[in-house]
TrEMBL record:
Organism annotation: Ibidorhyncha struthersii
Keyword field contains NADP: no
Chief location: membrane
Compartment(s) of residence: Membrane
Pfam families for this protein: PMP22_Claudin
Protein's UniProt keywords contain Transmembrane helix: yes
Transmembrane segments: 7-29, 65-85, 97-118, 138-158
Encoding gene, per UniProt annotation: Emp1
Superkingdom per UniProt: Eukaryota
Protein name: Epithelial membrane protein 1
Family stated for the protein in its record: Belongs to the PMP-22/EMP/MP20 family.
UniProt topology in membrane: Multi-pass membrane protein
InterPro entries on file: PMP-22/EMP/MP20-like, PMP22/EMP/MP20/Claudin, PMP22_EMP_MP20
């Protein structure tokens, strides 16, 4: 049981770190142009230098929603990690981590909403680019989506023995 708890704890920490990286780094979409590689993220457009991401007025609300839901997912993931540590030492034997699992599933839902909006509105939209593809931050966000769901379900069914 101790090995299972330690494994879940390590995966949860890895998920938090990957959420930070995928939200902060600006490599959600990567394209190539005659000036070199261009990458866009949630915040900046980077070529040789980084500048404010140019977004049309109709896509601005979508980008703000993606930014907000990714930040919320980080917050809920950190809260769930703290709750897990608190419940680990305060719950009686045989009790389940319901609150931690519920918070982690809210994190999972925030990631789902953010990545779905980004996929629907911004896929293939790299300014001044000939060809574009998803970058590692987008892939990390989907990996965090899977990990947070698995961790949330494990917390709900996990008992302290």
């Amino acid at each position: 049981m101790l090995v299972l708890l330690a494994g879940i704890f390590v995966v949860h920490i890895a998920t938090v770190i990957m959420l930070f990286v995928s939200t902060i780094a600006n490599v959600w979409m990567v394209g190539s142009s005659n000036l070199g590689n261009i990458s866009t993220g949630l915040w900046l457009l980077c070529n040789q230098t980084c500048e404010q991401l140019p977004v049309s007025s109709r896509d601005e609300a979508s980008l703000k929603a993606v930014q907000a839901f990714m930040i919320l997912s980080i917050i809920f993931s950190v809260i769930a990690l703290v709750m897990f540590i608190v419940q680990l030492f305060t719950l009686e034997k045989g009790k389940r981590f319901y609150l931690t699992g519920a918070i982690m599933l809210v994190c999972w839902m925030c990631i789902l909403i953010a990545v779905s909006i980004y996929t629907a509105r911004f896929t293939g939209k790299v300014p001044a680019s000939t060809s574009s593809h998803h970058g590692y931050c987008f892939i990390l966000a989907w990996i965090c989506f899977c990990f947070s769901f698995i961790i949330g379900i494990l917390y709900l069914v996990l008992r302290k023995k």
